[in-house]
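Okay, any thoughts on this one?
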Amino acid sequence: MRVLMLLSNPYRPDYRVEREAKALCGEGHRVTILAWDREGGREAREIMDGVTVLRFGPRAGYNKPLEMFAKLPFFWLRALRKSRKVELDVVHAHDLDTLILGRVLSRLRSVDLVYDAHELYWAMIENSVPGWLRRLVERIERRRVSKANVVLTVTPALAKTLGNYGARQVELVMNCEAVREPDAERVREIRREMLGEAKKFVLYAGMLEPSRNLELLIDIFGRLEGSDIKLVVGGTGSLASKISRLAEETPNVDFVGWIPSSEMFDYVSASDLIILVHDPRNTNIRLGISARLFNAMAAGKPVVVSEGTGNADIVRAEGVGDVVPFDDANQIRSSALALLRDGERLDGIAENGRRATGERYNWEIMKRRLIRAYGDLGAD
């Protein structure tokens, strides 16, 4: 089938979108991505691993949600024009900001619509837009989900929620890691770069947003004076400038900026512990499961996660780390230090994580679900 994906970022590439697009190409489908280049300056047309990527504006700031909503219709209009030159059998809309466009295209071209819900969109924006706009987006999300032929999503809790919204068919395609070995030479390079005078490093890699509790983590590890343990923070988001400044001012903390998806598994494999003490008062964090947890399990690395989250459920069930209150600095610190110093427990965690990855949480399983969902479309 000829698949047109719609994406509201420039495909740097996006971790989930990249793997899905490559998986579909591997099955003989032809994939084109219309990507919103909100910063400008990226190649307008690029072929990446067999995937054709078409990028275009208008420009819109990432930390300016109201500007983004104001300019989103202009992206839709340009995408509609671009789509005229693309042959397609399926429209695959990533997140709600492309679902409305996807619905229009599917009706204009009489093709199936796949909705890929990476999270609940209204919950993602609830703390950054006026209440009336959040409520409007929630109503739209609840109503539009039922218009897709298939809904893909990332966790069992989100699948249940979207089913309650009226989704016709929900397929669980989690952001799991492949069963593989890291690049051993690159892992050694990363450890040399990250450690400096330290002997071990703890990694946070992901979105730099208030709900990720990063300032508390920096304070915790910054207070470990004379410690041989370092915190390394990587990612992008609204707090990037602040985190960069705090890292420069804080002993035992380094900020490395954006980590490309192609490098993420090597960074996780090079680390000694992954820390994910996200705020469970955030709806998407309660319902979600971090891709970094799956990276850590595949790499055999321990994790510290916060209570009341999807991460916590898996960590407890699989025995791959500790669960702590998200705002308890003393317990976060003591759990991280205890894990790093308990060699026997670390061996057990590594074994548990790799076994769970091989049996339940790996990309091959998720890819088969994706391909099956597309096969169902083709059978209609």
About this structure: The longest strand covers residues 200-207.
